[in-house]
Fold this protein.
Amino acid sequence: MPVAAITLTTASRYNRKYLGFAVFPLFFGVQQALEGGLWLSLGQGAPETTHWFAIGFLFFAYFFWPFWVPLSAYFVEPKRHLKRIFLIFSLLGALLGAFLFAPLLFLDEPLPIHIVHHSIHYSSPLMWDNVVHRTLIRGVYAIIVCAPILLSSINAVRMFGYLITLSVIGGFVVAHYAFTSIWCFAAAILSCYVLFIIREASKSVPTHRPNEI
C-alpha cells in the first residue's frame, strides 16, 4: 500500500494521464488481501465466507484487469492510431471479462476451491465449457492484457509489458494448475514497477500544469 500511495500522489501531481497505471498497486493490494482472507476462511472451514472472498478476487482477475490494463495504456499513449487499437483491446477485455465473471454471480452453491501444491485452484464455471478449451481462453486473455503494453510507444510501459508477459509464461509453465492465483500474485509484485513508469513520466511534465486524462 505505501507504493500505491506514492504512485497515486506522483501521478496526481505530475501527470494525471498515468492515474490508470497508478492504481495498479492499490487494486492488486486489495486483490491479494481478498485472497489472503480466502486462505484464512479455508482454514476456518467457512464455505460461504470463502465463496465471497473468491468472488472478490476473481472480479479483479476475470473482469477488471482485462479491460483496465488496455485502458491504462490508452490513457498514456501519445500516438493516435495506437490509442484506437488500445481502446478496442479495452472493449474486448470488458466483453471477455463479463463472459468470464458473469457465471459466478449465478451459482447455486459456493464456488469450489481446491488447494493444489500449496496454491489455490478456482474451479469456476465458464460459459464456454465443453466448447472452447480453457487454454485457448487463457491465451486470448493474455493477448488482451499484454498486447497493449507491449505495443506502447512509451519505453517504460513497454518494459512493463515484457515483465508481465514473462510472468504469464512463467505462471503457466510453473503452475498451470493454479494459474489465476499464481499469475495475479506475480503481477501484484511487478506492479511496483509502475512507480518507475510514473517517475519517468513526471520528469518531462511541468509540476504546475498536470496533464488531464
The beta strands are 113-116, 119-122.
